[in-house]
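Protocol step 4 of 6: structure prediction from sequence.
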Amino acid sequence: MTKIYVLIGKSGSGKDSFFEELIADKDLNLKSIVGYTTRPKRVHESEGVEYHFTDEAGLNKLRNEDMIIEERCYHTVHGDWYYFTAKDEKILENIEQNINYIYIGTVESFVKMKEYYGSDIVIPLYIEVEDGERLARALKRERKQDAPKYAEMCRRFLADCEDFSEENLEKAGISKKYENMDFDKCLAEIKEDIMKNIG
């Protein structure tokens, strides 16, 4: 049966790096589910890879067509940015085909996807990094941007402490945590768990 692995973690936890490694692993043979956002593209991001980049008109069109599984609005220092997950009928059609997917999400998107696709299909992969290390990584990434948004980086860091609280993780049914202090070791542990599910 199909599995959808949702990579979850605070900003700077390494989700994008893990995603790239997992999607490239031919043994895992994972297909990507690409989310949507109305925020501006970052340097080195590409349409349809990290996100589908749209505007509020595009979001409203999908809302009106009842194609949204979940959406979140972040009130940033640069205005409201929406992130959302759209329905994909191909996934439902392929449930019995053992086609497995990976998606970068949040606790909230994981819960909504679990409600939509089923808890036996949607599996969380929660990446955890010590806050000081995470902040250093986020700052390093932000410095590479053409127009660094340091205030937004700080807002996200503080918001993540609330959004990813132990209480919220427990309510969502997320108990397993992958410690990302050694990337290769953490990646090996995630791959091993995925192989157990699909093998």
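Step 5 (inspection) to follow. Residues 5 and 40 are 26 Å apart (CA to CA).
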